[in-house]
Fold this sequence. Notes:
flat; Rossmann fold
Amino acid sequence: MIRAATLERILVILSDFVALSICFMLAFWVQFHSGWIADKYDPSKLFADYAHMGLFLNIAWLVLFTCAGLYRSWLLMSRTHQILRVLRGVIIGIVLIIVCLFGSEFISKFSSNMPLSEGYLYGSRFPWIFIYGGLAMVLVASFRMFIYLCLRGLLRLGYGANNILVLGATEAGRKVAEDLKNTPERGQRVIGFVDERFQVMDREFAGFPVLGKYSDLAALVKKYRVTGIVIAHESSSPQEIMRVLVWICEMALHIYIVPELYPVVNGRFKANLVYGFELQELFAFTMPPWQVRVKRIMDLVVGGFIGLVSFPLWILAAIAIKLQDGGPVFYSQERIGLYGKPFTVYKFRTMRTDAEKFGAQWATKDDPRVTKIGKFLRKTRIDELPQILCVLKGDMSMVGPRPERAVFISKLREEIPFYISRLKMKPGLTGWAQVRHHYDTSTEDVKIKLQYDMYYYENMSLLLDFQILVRTVYVVLTGKGAQ
């Protein structure tokens, strides 16, 4: 079954294409057949001769709208905000059309302070461009509003709604469940409650089933295809809220909290108000979808380039490791990636072959297990180069929190609140924590790095990724931060 968000995106793209096609046809008619622009009136012009230009413009518009974030989910967001975003996108598009059509001639006259003749401004294609832009604004916005009117109608009938669980059979939880039930156009359907008192309470609360306790969340999320969870726990203790979050923050879910509990966690992490409702979303992913796609393309391009350029270093590192003790060149290890998915990470071996004969342990400053060649490889970060393979495969990104081992995650999730929230990000070859802090040598180091990782998550953007990559080059060249 097609997802509601996917259906929304398909319909909006189709409506934009149709609206822009109508804009082009109307602008063509006004330009050549209406007689409203006297010097452009030419009924011998055939639309078929210009259809290819219209198709090219439509594709260019769709690309521009994608980059402007107009194809994210707008169903539950402000219509006014969406119209303003459409207006901004159209204005940018019209400016680009003017630059492309008039090009160097316009720029050269403007830069040399040469006057533009009246015929240049009014007898040229400027009227056509502004008519086309005005029609694009009106029709694209109108078609979109019609699409969303229809989609909201389907939501009222119960089609395409997201399944929501409410954590805590409380009065706050009752209010949330009843409000969502009474406003189905919001697209959120409460399927039941989850409460720690499950075994001693009634199996129904506020007209909704009580499905289990917090430890059942993973099974319930999978069984009912849950996309979001509302925390309405009656406790006002920050420790209680954090304990609840430990069960769910590693899942691919939207996490909301009722207003009564927001003061308890306010200031501990960033939260976004859910438009049109009094819920706060925790750990909201704010990177626009188009930037997510560009980030993946950047991973492939940058990762492939680094892999090719650094290949001679791979050979030299392999020879040096072999000559030192004859042991294996590479060191492979299972790490935990996005939403708890395990994957194998590869590094050049920098420690003795018996480094973990007593089990997994933290690296320490001047760690005696590190070989002489290993110290150099770590200082220059050459030991990390084989992880380029993980980036190209898609298990990692160029920028993100470092992937951790399952054995350490099991310990740290109990000691550090919200540590597990790092699993909401794809791990990276480098990251904000890596360029701001050194290798982990203790739990305190992990706590500091978690703050950097959460800062990255809350401010994730292509610009920040670029900044981190530049800082990484500095760290590699100077050895600062390496151990």
